[in-house]
Design brief:
CATH topology of the largest domain: Tumour Suppressor Smad4
Distance between the termini: 15 Å
Number of helices: 7
Largest sheet: 13 strands, mixed
Shape: globular
CATH class of the largest domain: Mainly Beta
Structural class: alpha+beta
Number of domains: 2
Radius of gyration: 18 Å
CATH architecture of the largest domain: Sandwich
Order of helices and strands: HEHEHHEEEHHEEEHEEEEE
């Protein structure tokens, strides 16, 4: 099929390219951050489909849609889905801060995870090992903070490490952070990681790769449609991309995108 190749210059360029595109499909040769940029450029448009690939360091979005890993198999898969008209129509989530907003497909969070994502940027070439370095550096520098959270109208104040709004099971290159999430659902899951001693965190951390961490009392896991975090100063990211800081609101929108 006819195609054009675009190489992104910097952050935000993929959003610009997607917003002005007149193609039928955008094949994303990058990771979750690049897919996120394209989704932001196409928010609310279903005339253009997004085709993720395993082209980045995390690729959790590619993982949840069960796409082929090898690029030659993936190209065949995209072609067959276009010809047959088989695609996935999915609602976008959105985070709104005082200064900006951003759509996302899978996972957004505030606190610990966003700090780790910032450190991971320096170690991205190391892959999963680089993420573990980010976890350890963040763990030994983070301080306990009481956070005011409103979960679907229910207010609570809790000492937390992280608040996660998850539509995807996977995060940070295959961690099964939200085993009960379904991206096709009209609901997300809140994964509320409560404050704990560092040694307990290190003991529990391996469980996140199997999704069994949600069974311990330091983790709250339940359905949610909207989260408001009113305490200021926590970093916020979605799909590994820094958005800003709290206060913020996470929500599911009525804006759709198509995935092939």
């Amino acid at each position: 099929f006819n195609h054009e190749v675009f190489i992104t210059r910097d952050r935000g360029h993929a959003t610009e390219l997607a917003h002005t595109s007149i193609s039928d499909v955008i094949i994303v040769c990058g990771g979750d951050g690049t897919v996120n940029e394209v989704a932001n450029g196409l928010a609310g448009r279903t005339d253009i489909a997004i085709a993720p690939t395993y082209g980045g360091s995390g690729c959790d979005l590619s993982r949840i849609f069960g796409i082929a890993k090898k690029i030659e198999h993936r190209i065949d898969e995209i072609y067959k889905r276009i010809i047959s008209g088989v695609d996935i129509k999915i609602k976008l989530s959105k985070v709104v801060t005082e200064k900006t907003y951003r759509y996302f497909i899978g996972v957004g969070d505030a606190g610990f995870g966003a700090k780790v994502a910032g450190i991971f940027e320096r170690y991205r070439k190391l892959g999963k090992f680089g993420y573990v370095i980010g976890v350890l550096q963040t763990l030994f520098s983070i301080k306990p903070i009481k956070v005011k959270i409103i979960i679907d109208g229910e207010e609570k104040i809790e000492k937390v490490l992280m608040i996660m709004f998850a539509r995807s099971k996977y995060y940070a290159g295959g961690m099964k952070v939200s085993p009960h999430s379904d991206p096709m659902s009209d609901k997300a899951r809140i994964i509320l990681l409560k404050w704990m001693r560092k040694m307990i965190f290190l003991m529990l951390f391996p469980k996140v790769y199997f999704g069994t961490h949600v069974n311990v009392h330091y983790v709250e896991d339940r359905d949610v449609r909207r989260i408001d975090i009113t305490t200021p100063g926590l970093p916020v990211d979605v799909e590994g991309e820094y958005v800003g800081s709290t206060p913020c609101t996470f929500m599911i929108t009525d804006e759709y995108i198509r995935i092939v």
